[in-house]
C-alpha cells in the first residue's frame, strides 16, 4: 500500500508540474506595453504546440510501443536492466522527433 504522505507529495508534484508552466504562460500573456496592448498576445500558441507534441510523442506513440515490448522481457530483474536503456532511448527518439 502506498503511504498517504507519498500520495500527498505525488499530488503536490502533479499540481506543481501543471500549475507552474500554465501560471508562467498566463503571466507572460498578461504583460502589457505602456500603451495598454498585450506584449505577447499569442504566447499560448507555442505552449499548446509543445503540449500537443508531448502528448503525440509520449501517449500516442511511445507508451503503446513500450506496452508491447516490456511484457515480452523474460525475468523481472533483468527486465528492469534491459528496459531502462530501451525506455531512455525511445523517450529521446520520440521526444526529439516531436520537437
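-> sequence recovered:
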Amino acid at each position: 500500500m502506498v503511504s498517504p504522505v507519498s500520495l500527498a507529495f505525488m499530488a503536490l508534484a502533479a499540481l506543481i508540474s501543471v500549475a507552474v508552466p500554465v501560471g508562467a504562460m498566463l503571466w507572460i500573456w498578461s504583460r502589457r506595453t505602456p500603451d495598454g496592448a498585450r506584449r505577447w498576445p499569442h504566447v499560448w500558441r507555442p505552449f499548446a504546440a509543445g503540449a500537443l507534441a508531448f502528448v503525440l510523442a509520449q501517449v500516442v506513440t511511445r507508451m503503446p510501443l513500450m506496452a508491447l515490448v516490456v511484457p515480452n522481457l523474460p525475468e523481472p530483474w533483468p527486465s528492469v536492466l534491459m528496459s531502462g536503456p530501451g525506455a531512455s532511448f525511445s523517450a529521446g527518439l520520440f521526444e526529439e522527433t516531436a520537437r
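Residues 57 and 94 are 5 Å apart (CA to CA).
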